Structure to design on (329 residues):
């Protein structure tokens, strides 16, 4: 297989991995008992059972599924949300957070080898930094308000009481609903400004991956402007971000004729993609906190030359002729 074919396979591979991540957690939902009988010896219950079984009755109310009195799928969706999504999402996010904090405490920060040189190189233009921080700000608002909707019941009711939580949840719901469309603007911008340097380079990327970016010890593996860990974050952010945008718009605007089934499925995909993007975001944050000299890349747009040589030697080598760095300030 030629490297050209190889390169084309990588994005597809990532797409398949994201698909598996999104679809596998939905299997219990798909396989759940569809019609569990309610064994209550009440003659009136038969009436409700009939209403539940009927696909649709007749009504003069105009609109989608207005003739459906009891939505059977809603019960399945509710049970799946509270019995699977919520606890497994919490275990994944809590687990990733715990492992990263432990690793940071054990390993400490990654210092610039040989200290700072005092010579800085241009790394990100004002436009790129603007797009990045706009995306990050909207992401933080959406993440915090989304997590409050998902977990506030357990975390905030003991602190704020039921009335306090009701107010917080109402505010978070409105904030989430209104800031969602901003993310729909941010994701294509993020995709465009970082695409060029996040294309995969199989030989360099595989070598970096096999040596886990130097975390296994030994010489720091080579990397271009971004290493494969950063590239994975870029592609996860863009792909899971796209799933969040499409499913979020379907939830945000229920007035476009979508039925309850599609809304329920959108909600499940939305929450699974939300957990995936938040888990990988924690890794992104770990890298920024753990690595000395990286934060300034996105704040000032410049990095120390020794940092560049240590972590992105191929990028450094490409620049060195033009020692002020690349592109506009
Ligand atoms: C408080 C939150 C965040 C902080 C402190 C932060 C910090 C940084 C820093 C310092 C870099 C520069 C890395 C380098 O030049 O090697 C960076 C790059 C990047 N960040 Fe963030 N970031 C945050 C949130 C986000 C979010 C929410 C997203 C996307 C949804 C994101 C996507 C990216 C991307 C795509 C890059 C380029 C490197 C890559 O392709 O992975 N960041 N970030
Ligand atoms: C960083 C990206 C995002 C994250 C992490 C996120 C996360 C979440 C979470 C965790 C929930 C709660 C699910 C539940 O209670 O079971 C939720 C609900 C929702 N999200 Fe997002 N979301 C994001 C982006 C978006 C976007 C881009 C939109 C719209 C375009 C959107 C629209 C909605 C809507 C309408 C709901 C339902 C709110 C309600 O209960 O009324 N979200 N989101």
């Amino acid at each position: 297989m030629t490297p050209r074919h190889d390169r084309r396979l990588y994005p597809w591979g990532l797409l398949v991995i994201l698909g598996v991540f999104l679809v596998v957690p939905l299997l219990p939902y798909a396989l759940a008992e569809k019609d569990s009988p309610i064994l209550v010896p009440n003659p009136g219950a038969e009436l409700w059972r009939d209403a539940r079984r009927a696909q649709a009755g007749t009504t003069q109310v105009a609109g989608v599924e207005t003739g459906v009195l009891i939505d059977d799928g809603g019960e399945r969706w509710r049970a799946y949300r509270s019995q699977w999504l919520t606890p497994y999402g919490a275990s994944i996010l809590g687990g990733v957070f715990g492992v990263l904090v432990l690793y940071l405490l054990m390993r400490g920060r990654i210092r610039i080898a040989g200290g700072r040189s005092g010579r800085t190189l241009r790394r990100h233009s004002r436009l790129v930094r603007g797009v990045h921080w706009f995306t990050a700000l909207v992401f933080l608002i959406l993440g915090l308000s989304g997590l409050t909707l998902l977990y506030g019941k357990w975390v905030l009711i003991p602190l704020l009481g039921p009335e306090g939580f009701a107010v917080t949840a109402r505010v978070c719901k409105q904030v989430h609903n209104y800031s969602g469309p901003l993310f729909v603007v941010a994701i294509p911008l993020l995709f465009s400004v970082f695409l060029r340097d996040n294309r995969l380079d199989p030989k360099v990327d595989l070598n970096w991956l096999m040596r886990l970016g130097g975390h296994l010890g030994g010489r720091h593996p080579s990397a271009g402007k971004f290493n494969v860990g950063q590239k994975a974050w870029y592609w996860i952010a863009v792909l899971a971000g796209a799933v969040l945008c499409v499913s979020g718009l379907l939830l945000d605007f229920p007035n476009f004729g979508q039925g309850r089934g599609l809304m329920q499925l959108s909600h499940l995909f939305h929450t699974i993609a939300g957990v995936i993007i938040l888990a990988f975001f924690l890794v992104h944050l770990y890298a920024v906190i753990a690595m000395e000299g990286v934060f300034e890349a996105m704040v000032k747009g410049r990095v120390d030359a020794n940092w560049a040589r240590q972590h992105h030697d191929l990028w450094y080598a490409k620049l060195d002729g033009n020692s002020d760095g690349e592109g506009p300030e």
